[in-house]
């Protein structure tokens, strides 16, 4: 069975010029759930100065009644965002990271090594607070620019493999590989998924594609063929 994570309430809306009120975004999430979506990246705990479309994440979550069998995900870029997420009813927290220094520094002000340390600090804080998979929100990490970076160019298979191994060693429950600028192709998807699987054989892998060059569906198919079951 292929599991789908719906991201339009976050990754879709954050690219729109029109800024929707939290109540409207909460209604959108509920409509997606009514249509059958079971896992939804519903909010992003980022500074509204940089992403005004995602302002009021706490209000969105507060407006969403609990729904059996549904999981609402909050995206965070750092420890401060993670702490904000813990103050809400999110079921999962997705930590955004980057496969390149160029994108990491532009997007979060952090190099790759600093991002790994940031994730390590989040995991450590979770453990020190008595968190566990049963007591704290599920924790995942999304590695952006796996198939190419607008600042650093091509990203090697080895680069991805090494980072996946480092992330998996921290004990997150799911690792997503993202084609942030939509430059992947089925051949490279197969190669990098195989490398990630070898680097972290026990990790749950998720793939996130953009259809920039009309290859999104073909890339998703290649990922499934390579053994990934979450898109």
Short characterization:
With 231 residues, the chain is α/β, with parallel strands linked by helices. The chain contains 9 helices and 7 strands, in the order βααβαβαβααβαβαβα.
List the helices and strands and how they pair.
Layout lengths: L4 E2 L1 H5 L9 H13 L4 E7 L11 H6 L8 E6 L2 H8 L5 E7 L2 H8 L3 H17 L9 E7 L12 H13 L4 E5 L7 H14 L5 E4 L7 H10 L6
Parallel strand pairs: 1-2, 2-3, 3-4, 4-5, 5-6, 6-7
Helix pairs in contact: 7-8, 8-9
Describe the protein in words:
The chain has 231 residues and is α/β, with parallel strands linked by helices. The protein folds into two domains: 1-39 and 46-72, no CATH class; 91-225, Alpha-Beta Barrel (TIM Barrel), CATH 3.20.20. 41% of the residues lie in helices and 16% in strands. Strands 1-2-3-4-5-6-7 form a seven-stranded parallel beta sheet. Strand 6, helix 8 (186-199) and strand 7 (205-208) form a beta-alpha-beta unit. Helix 7 (157-169) runs parallel beside helix 8 (186-199) and helix 8 runs parallel beside helix 9. The termini are close together.
């Amino acid at each position: 069975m292929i599991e789908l994570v719906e991201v339009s309430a976050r990754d879709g809306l954050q690219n729109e010029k029109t800024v929707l009120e939290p109540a409207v975004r909460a209604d959108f999430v509920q409509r997606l759930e009514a249509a059958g979506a079971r896992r939804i990246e519903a909010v992003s705990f980022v500074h509204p100065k940089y992403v005004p479309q995602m302002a009021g994440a706490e209000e969105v979550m507060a407006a969403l009644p609990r729904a059996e069998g549904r999981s609402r995900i909050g995206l965070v870029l750092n420890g401060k965002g993670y702490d904000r997420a813990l103050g809400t009813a999110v079921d999962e927290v997705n930590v955004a990271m980057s496969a390149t220094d160029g994108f990491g520094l532009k997007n979060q002000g952090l190099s790759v090594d600093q991002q790994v340390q940031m994730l390590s600090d989040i995991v450590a804080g979770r453990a020190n607070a008595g968190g566990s998979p049963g007591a704290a929100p599920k924790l995942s990490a999304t590695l952006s620019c796996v198939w190419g970076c607008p600042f650093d160019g091509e990203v090697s298979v080895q680069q991805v493999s090494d980072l996946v191994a480092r992330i998996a060693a921290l004990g997150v429950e799911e690792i997503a590989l993202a084609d942030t600028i939509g430059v992947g192709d089925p051949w490279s998807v197969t190669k990098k998924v195989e490398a990630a699987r070898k680097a972290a054989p026990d990790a749950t892998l998720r793939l996130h594609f953009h259809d920039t060059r009309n290859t999104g569906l073909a890339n998703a198919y290649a990922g499934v063929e390579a053994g990934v079951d979450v898109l």
